From TrEMBL:
This is LysR family transcriptional regulator. InterPro entries: LysR-type_TF_proteobact-type (IPR058163), LysR_HTH_N (IPR000847), LysR_subst-bd (IPR005119), WH-like_DNA-bd_sf (IPR036388), WH_DNA-bd_sf (IPR036390). One of its GO terms (biological process) is DNA-templated transcription. Signal peptide: none annotated. It holds the Pfam family LysR_substrate. The keyword DNA-binding applies. Gene3D superfamilies: 3.40.190.290, Winged helix-like DNA-binding domain superfamily/Winged helix DNA-binding domain (1.10.10.10). The keyword Disulfide bond does not apply. SUPFAM superfamilies: Periplasmic binding protein-like II, Winged helix' DNA-binding domain. Belongs to the LysR transcriptional regulatory family. GO terms for molecular function: DNA-binding transcription factor activity; sequence-specific DNA binding. Residues 3-60 form the HTH lysR-type domain.
Length: 298
């Protein structure tokens, strides 16, 4: 058990400073005290946290995991102390966020920037990837995803409604023409990326459903690359409306088959627990919801 919070504070300072001696100088502690606290922490956890060398400390895999959690724990303790001493909470600590690349670039990144500008004691670690991020194993505070998870022990907050639409650049549509029905998509060049595949399921008027097997010469595992290809006129793309709303508004892309769209794929935030949610996470969730529901992507 972690009985002494000073051990955690010392561990985090050691990692940040890069050595026991540097941490001792920053904390105004003797090297023997710093070394003893680290040894005690490793003994309590029955885990080797630091691989020691003559040049620089390196964290073990277990040490990296504890470091991420320790930073969050210490930030929450600091918030609680702030609230007790001043009657209000000054948001602080590292906000670790995961998001898909396109959504992160367009919306999550700007929200993180605004939070850092508004709250000097908040810092952000943003991971943009189109793979599914394991929030717990990777030490994230919150993960933003497109599409509600079917089965998750995490808490989910719906941030905005969303669905996939078919879009194409004016240059492509002028060259190849506009499909008049879902079936005509089979005769078009269609851009595919991981998450959509080659079979597109469209829902139309009156709940009609059409499943179309599309052909593609351009495939990518990255949504940004797929969108760049669509903008260059390489083919039609099946993409979340929230990812293409700016390009649609600016006329860089056009909506194809406007009466047809994909199944609901809301933008959701996942986090470990609703109870004692850090202030920085609440601020992020509220800011994301405001941005995604105002209908613009500036």
């Amino acid at each position: 058990m972690l009985d002494d919070i000073d051990e955690l504070r010392t561990f985090v300072r050691i990692v940040a400073a890069g050595s026991l001696s540097a941490a001792g100088r920053e904390m105004n502690l003797a090297l023997s005290v710093v070394s003893k606290r680290l040894a005690t922490l490793e003994r309590r956890t029955d885990t080797r946290l630091v691989a020691r060398s003559t040049r620089r400390l390196a964290l073990t895999e277990e040490g990296q995991r504890l470091y991420r959690h320790a930073q969050r724990i210490l930030a929450e303790i600091a918030e609680a102390e702030e609230a007790l001493s001043h009657g209000r909470v000054e948001p602080q600590g590292v906000l670790r966020v995961g998001a898909p690349a396109a959504l992160g670039r367009m919306h999550v990144g700007p929200v993180c920037r605004e939070l850092v500008e508004a709250y000097p004691r908040i810092s952000v670690d943003l991971c943009l990837t189109d793979r599914v991020v394991d929030l717990i194993d990777e030490g994230m505070d919150v993960v933003v995803r497109i599409g509600a998870p079917r089965d998750s022990a995490l808490v989910m907050r719906r941030l905005a409604d969303n669905h996939r639409v078919v879009v194409g650049a004016p240059a492509y549509l002028d060259r190849r023409g506009w499909p008049a029905s879902p079936q005509e998509l089979e005769g078009h060049d269609c851009i595919q990326y991981r998450g959509t595949g080659g079979r597109w399921r469209l829902i139309g008027p009156g709940g009609a459903v059409a499943e179309v097997d599309t052909a593609s010469r351009l495939r990518s595992d990255n949504g940004d690359v797929a969108q760049d290809w669509a903008l260059a006129g390489c083919g039609l793309m099946w993409k979340s409306q929230i990812d293409v709303q700016d390009d649609l508004a600016a006329g860089r892309l056009r909506r194809v088959l406007p009466d047809w769209h994909g199944d609901p794929a809301p933008v959701c935030a996942l986090f470990p627990s609703q109870r004692q949610l850090p202030t920085r996470v609440r601020l992020f969730l509220d800011a994301m919801a405001r941005r995604l529901n105002r209908g613009e992507g500036d």
